[in-house]
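Just scan my protein:

. . .
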Amino acid sequence: MSSSNPNPEEEDLDEMLAVDDAAEEIDNDGGDIAMDSDGEGEEEGEEVLLQNDSIAYFDVPQDSLFAIAQHPVYPSLIAVGGSAGQEADAPGAGWLFDTSAAESRPVLPASYASDPANAEWSSKTTQLDSLYALEGHTDSINSLCWTYPQGEYLVSGGLDGRMKVWKADVRPGAGVKMTVVGVSQEVEEINWIAACPSQNYANTVAVGAFDGSVWVYTIDASDASNPLQIIQSYFLHTGSCTAGAWTPDGLLLATVSEDSSLYVWDIWGEASAKNLVNDNGMTVISLTGEDQRFEVEGGLYSMAIDPKGTFVAVGGAGGAIKIISLPRLASPPSSQQQIRGKSSSDPTSGGQILASLHAQGDSVESLAVAVTSNNPPSTLLAAGSVDGSVCVYDATRRFAVRRHISGAHDEHSVVKLEFVSNSWLLTSCGMDGVVRRWDLRSGGVTGTNAAGAADRGLVKEWKGHSGGGEGGGVLGFVQGQTGERIVTAGDDCVALVFEA
């Protein structure tokens, strides 16, 4: 379901927000349920319907799946991680599986509905087998990522503070060979791991820890004496480091914390070479709760950087979102540009609070940014909240609310949001156990169980996980570049494959 239009043309932040407004703070206030086995509350003889829209499932795990990662070159190769059991001392566990074995369900003519044999065949789901077990963590695996640009390494992080790395030799049609590269343990607990997107700094990852520290590693299996090389380590956060994201060029790393601080780190010294770093010599942006314009009482828990690297959005307690401009680490202007005057590509320091948004009533747990495929393109920011709502802002219109979907996940926490690349389509998952897709251009519903959602733009929803107050929920998903297949990680010990 990817867009057929070409990639949108680049546009400067100057086109999104007037220079005179840069320092201005903008206020914007603005299913089926799994039943208990004892049948309590059911009418005698009442039929309980359980809906499963998946085309394949992976049910090897014995406990919750907290993390999921998709190979950047072979999108059918999926890694999931969680706990090996429900015991307090259960070790962490993870697996690799291949979704290419999942058979698509054909669109059948209406006449097939009267044929029980065909109906049964069309509803079958494929059981997926484990290709490899990720072992070596003494506590739950809660973060996974493949390195860029080729997915050469798989990196796991756990509640035991360990970061473990495997080298992946993918053999299309013949499986994958995994080789342990090394283990690092510098902290007591890892919160997240993010891969650097730059080809110039391949196989680099950033790690955020519960103690607030931030670490950057480059992985090189050819160096047997030091395969996991620590490039940088930072200790300015005074609370747990809850989220991190790289700029699209991989030159800067932004992190947030429960102490309501935001730091944007100059990992490779590019900003320092242009005299854009702060007095501490490490950051290009340093914002904390001491600045009352930036303070978010209760902490920051989510963040996203727009595809052009012009701003970072951070979300936190009470539904607060702050929009901060990012530096432009541009090359010096040409002589022709100098004659014409200051170029829009000149290096700028960033750090301006562009907007302060507050349209949701509870903590913002997930943020996503996309540039749409229309001409001129729009930059959209989507925010998912613990109150079950999804709010979409239009960055090209001073972050005005474009759509507020108050009951996106039936008052259950929204766990993750992600746009289908270069499109108006937004995918969301939540603790209600449902995955939904929204078309932000207009309303419209297809499929079943979508009554009353026409004005919200619901396109489709997929069920199969438990949730809705009965435990379970979807703790993560991946959907590739096209969004044609969605693979989930469930709190109910299963991963499901859905087809759009």
